[in-house]
């Protein structure tokens, strides 16, 4: 009988602990959601925001292309812009002055004359 009372008392104590933990207090949602909010903030400031700024700079660079610019494509081809079309760019590629038509989105960088002389 004494053992049964101890077991029932222990069950009641365990039930009370679980009820208290599940009902939570006024700040329990913050403790539960806090790490998730922190992870999202870290991802935003370390991954999402820098990528958005790089993409904005890249679009601005594509918008500012003009004839005579020295560019590099995603395939590593370096050439001089000869003509600009809506979706394409015509490049003159040395040493044989081959004329290539590449997609505007394939251009990854513009090289100025100052950068060429430094190399």
Short description:
With 119 residues, this protein is of the alpha+beta class.
User: Mean of the pLDDT scores?
Assistant: 82
DSSP strand tally: 5
Spatial gap, N to C terminus: 92 Å
C-alpha Rg (nearest Å): 32 Å
Oligomeric state of this protein: single chain
Uncertain parts? none
Give the C-level CATH assignment of the domain at 66-118. Answer: Mainly Beta
The share of residues in helices is 40-55%
Proportion in β-strands: 15-25%
CATH architecture of the domain at 66-118: Roll
Output the strand order for the largest sheet: 4-3-2-1-5
- Category by helix and strand content: alpha+beta
For the sheet with most strands, the description reads:
5 strands, antiparallel
Which series of helices and strands comes N to C? Answer: HHEEEEEH
CATH topology of the domain at 66-118: SH3 type barrels
User: Shape from CA axes?
Assistant: rod-shaped
Number of helices: 3
Blueprint of the fold:
Layout: H1 2-23, H2 28-63, E1 70-73, E2 78-84, E3 88-93, E4 98-103, E5 107-111, H3 113-118
Antiparallel strand pairs: 1-2, 1-5, 2-3, 3-4
Question: Keywords for this structure?
Answer:
alpha+beta; SH3 type barrels; five-stranded antiparallel sheet; 3 helices; rod-shaped
């Amino acid at each position: 009988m004494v053992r049964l009372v101890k077991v029932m008392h222990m069950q009641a104590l365990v039930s009370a602990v679980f009820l208290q933990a599940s009902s939570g207090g006024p700040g329990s949602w913050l403790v539960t959601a806090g790490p998730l909010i922190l992870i999202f903030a870290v991802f935003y400031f370390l991954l999402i925001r820098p990528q958005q700024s790089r993409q904005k700079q890249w679009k601005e660079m594509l918008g500012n292309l003009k004839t005579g610019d020295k560019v590099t494509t995603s395939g590593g081809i370096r050439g001089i812009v000869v003509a600009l079309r809506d979706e394409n760019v015509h490049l003159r590629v040395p040493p044989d002055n081959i004329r290539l038509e590449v997609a505007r989105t394939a251009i990854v960088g513009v090289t100025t004359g100052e950068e060429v002389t430094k190399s």
